[in-house]
Amino acid sequence: MPTPTSSDELFMRRALDLARLGTGHTRPNPLVGCVITHQGRIIGEGWHRQYGGPHAEVNAVAAVTDSQLLPQSRVYVTLEPCSHFGKTPPCADLLIEKQVGEVVICNLDPNPLVAGRGIQKLRDAGIQVETGVLEAEGRALNRRFFTFQEQQRPYVVLKWAETADGYLAGPYFQPVAISGELARVAVHQWRTEEHAILVGTRTALHDNPRLNAREWPGPNPIRLVIDKNLSLPPTHHLFDGSQPTVVFTYRERASQPNLTYVTLSEAEDLFPQILHHLYQQGVQSVLVEGGPTVLNSLLKDGLWDEVRVIRSPRRLGGGVAAPRIGLTGLREQLTLGPDEVFIYQR
Questions:
Q1: 181 is catalytic
Q2: Do residues 142 and 173 lie in contact, with contact meaning Cβ atoms separated by under 8 Å?
Q3: One of 45, 57, 162, 289 is an active-site residue; which one?
Q4: What is the CATH number of the domain that holds 48?
Q5: 176-208: pLDDT as tens digits
Q6: Out of 25, 40, 145, 193, which residue is the most buried by the measure of CB atoms under 10 Å away?
């Protein structure tokens, strides 16, 4: 495989930037961007904007004003062009039809429906194909998609806010406003970026959360709540029917519109069952905003991919302790008003 040039990386980085514009709108499909160049100049670009809508390659080709340039063009795409009919026709077929000159790919598609077939189609048609340009950056961008495809479970993000002295809540789980306004807005943005959001019984009972993204534009996540014995009051916000909600329980109860009850086995471990069910339902990622029992269980079992800790300068002097498990792999540190945000990656 030829060594990528600086211009290859430049145009692929632009394609990755375009792909990010689809965040929250393409799931369960991956984020994909595409840039088409001719003699080192961009002549068309696009990204996958919406699940069920045209793919990045289709939008990029449509943006080219002079289609006669396509046979001499170089196409940069962040994920292997699809080779099968899904919601839309195969993008590999489109590139072949347009007789593009070369295709440069960031990541191969791990989806068994594609998995190298798109590349083979292009090569069989005489199109030169290069792969692996900014591969690590592409995997990081689509880490939810790759985790779902390769590990057969959703990508799991654990999030909590803690005081400077290490508490999540006041005594007896009394709710306390720990993080500041900027951090709260950031959390609502995170909610739009994940497919679902999970809390345990105590958090649902004491906080009565809505678990929506009312402070940031974007889609609301699917609400997930663990209620083993169906003890939560039906008057709580989680049962208001405003967005799809799933209750994981050991009891039987009939589902209602926008409210699904999933009965789990008491003889099996709880969280593997939950993650397996979500995988079967095509849920690609989960933001966990639970209390210490849920968070510590997932941490102990290694069922997490990312941890986001919001640390406030506020002190409580007592209350419900935040998880104390040592974390390594700090990926990013942010300052949001008075709060510090620490993001860890497995």
A1: no
A2: no
A3: 57
A4: 3.40.140.10
A5: 899 999 999 999 999 999 999 999 999 999 999
A6: 145
